[in-house]
């Protein structure tokens, strides 16, 4: 048997078998005990019911001709000797006792021989119960020869020569008990052997059927799990609501869906990582190639270049170093955001003042490109509750992006407006716009929209903005039409003074 086949016979099956066998043995033992107990009770009740009038007959027959007491008040022992002789000829297990009105044993042939374990009185409660119900209801009475034990009996009251008491007859005496115990042991032995054989047979048949039925769904689930483990990622437990272990079946299906979903995400992340590496490699290669070319030119033609040419080449080299530095900083920043290593420190601040600072910072660049950069609604002071450094970074990326794609004589506007409990921030430009089919993807990392343009793609700037918005539990919306410009809109919670 292979290792895989062994795993399909789990220890659970063995434990079920062990539990089932123990349960059957317990039930068999209980059955034997209960059967013997009630069989014994049935035998005793039958014997008592059949001999209920024996005591009455003794009084009627024996006390009619002779008194149980002599003239001096002592017990007529010869009378009881004859009585026991006659009764034992019929039933050797019978024991006759003469009791007074308090239950004290006045005489019995079996006690006359002396018995250290005997008692000199019996309880009258079962005797009175027996007489009251005329022997129709089962009751046990004290055994005078064995203290603490009870036996079936027959009893009847007498009244002779002014003396009262009871004739108390134990119907299952010591001899009967010895024979009964011997037969009972033999009965239990035979019953035990027979019951054990039948129990083993039926437990084998019923156990096989029961365990097969109980583990049917478990085997199905085990088979499905094995298929999933072997690479069948579409393997699922069908109709889990009909399974005997519905919770486990549903849990497995949910777990399998989660695993497949995570695998799809990992594949998607891996694909994006490959694309990112390819795009970054391209963007790094271009400025590096330019740097290398101009540095080699300066080294080779240093003596033949004019001072003006040298300064131009150095400026080009400086610009490409800035591009490399900016790209590396973006990569570092985005990697921290994606790895969730950045925790926003939210505090109240003036988004209006921050906007003034950013407009002033980018005004020189805008004037160089002949773009009108304006702040709308600069008079009203809008306070928000957010991370000021992250919001500044997001606005900076959006303004840079707007200036990049806006032609000369165009316009870029940063507007602020209170709307209920939020402040709406809107960066609008009159640039080239974004095709409708490309708009859902512009926040993907390194997504280049206008591939025909010579400008660098959207890169990581908008992806960083999206991550910052996620950290603030808000969304950013883009409204754009080709050749008409774009608007990037997001909201921050207003701070109530």
UniProtKB/TrEMBL annotation:
Q: Which CDD domains match?
A: HAMP, HATPase, HisKA
Keywords, A to Z, come to: ATP-binding, Cell membrane, Kinase, Membrane, Nucleotide-binding, Phosphoprotein, Transferase, Transmembrane, Transmembrane helix, Two-component regulatory system
Alphabetized SUPFAM superfamilies for the sequence? ATPase domain of HSP90 chaperone/DNA topoisomerase II/histidine kinase (SSF55874), HAMP domain-like (SSF158472), Homodimeric domain of signal transducing histidine kinase (SSF47384)
Residue span(s) of domain Histidine kinase: 279-496
Its record classes its membrane topology as:
Multi-pass membrane protein
Question: What EC class is this?
Answer: transferase
Recorded protein name is: histidine kinase
**What is this organism's lineage?**
Bacteria, Pseudomonadati, Bacteroidota, Flavobacteriia, Flavobacteriales
């Amino acid at each position: 048997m292979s290792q895989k086949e062994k795993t399909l016979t789990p220890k659970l099956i063995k434990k079920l078998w062990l539990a089932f066998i123990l349960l059957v043995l317990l039930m068999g033992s209980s059955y034997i005990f209960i059967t013997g107990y009630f069989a014994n009770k049935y035998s005793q009740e039958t014997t008592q019911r059949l001999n209920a009038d024996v005591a009455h007959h003794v009084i009627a027959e024996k006390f009619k001709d002779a008194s149980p007491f002599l003239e001096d008040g002592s017990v007529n022992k010869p009378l009881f000797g004859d009585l026991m002789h006659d009764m034992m000829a019929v039933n050797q297990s019978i024991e006759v006792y003469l009791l007074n009105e308090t239950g004290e044993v006045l005489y019995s042939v079996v006690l006359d021989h002396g018995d250290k374990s005997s008692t000199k009185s019996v309880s009258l409660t079962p005797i009175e119960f027996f007489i009251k119900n005329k022997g129709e209801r089962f009751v046990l009475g004290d055994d005078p020869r064995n203290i603490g034990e009870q036996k079936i009996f027959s009893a009847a009251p007498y009244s002779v020569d002014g003396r009262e008491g009871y004739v108390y007859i134990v119907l299952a005496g010591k001899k009967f008990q010895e024979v009964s115990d011997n037969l009972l042991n033999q009965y239990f032995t035979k019953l035990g052997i027979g019951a054990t054989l039948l129990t083993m047979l039926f437990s084998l048949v019923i156990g096989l059927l029961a365990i097969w039925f109980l583990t049917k769904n478990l085997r199905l689930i085990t088979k499905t799990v094995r298929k999933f483990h072997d690479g069948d990622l579409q393997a699922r437990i069908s109709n889990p609501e009909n399974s005997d272990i519905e919770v486990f079946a549903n849990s497995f299906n949910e777990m399998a869906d989660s695993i497949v979903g995570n695998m799809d995400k990992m594949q998607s992340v891996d694909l994006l990582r490959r694309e990112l590496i390819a795009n970054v490699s391209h963007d790094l290669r271009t400025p590096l190639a330019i740097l290398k070319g101009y540095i080699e030119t300066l080294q080779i033609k240093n003596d033949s270049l004019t001072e003006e040419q040298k300064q131009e080449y150095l400026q080009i080299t400086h610009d490409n170093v800035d591009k490399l530095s900016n790209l590396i900083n973006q990569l570092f920043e985005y990697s921290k955001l994606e790895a969730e290593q950045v925790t926003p420190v939210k505090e109240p601040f003036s988004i209006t003042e921050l906007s003034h600072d950013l407009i002033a910072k980018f005004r020189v660049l805008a004037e160089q490109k002949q773009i009108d950069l304006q702040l709308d609604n600069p008079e009203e002071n809008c306070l928000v509750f957010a991370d000021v450094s992250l919001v500044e970074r997001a606005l900076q990326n959006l303004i840079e992006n707007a200036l990049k794609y806006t032609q000369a004589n165009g316009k870029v506007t940063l507007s602020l407006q209170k709307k209920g409990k939020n402040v709406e921030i809107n960066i609008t430009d009159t640039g080239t716009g974004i095709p409708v089919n490309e708009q859902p993807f512009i926040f993907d990392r390194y997504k280049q929209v206008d591939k025909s343009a010579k400008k660098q793609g959207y890169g990581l700037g908008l992806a960083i903005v999206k991550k910052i918005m996620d950290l603030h539990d808000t969304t950013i919306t883009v409204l754009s039409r080709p050749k008409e410009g774009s608007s990037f809109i997001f909201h921050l919670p207003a701070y109530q003074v």
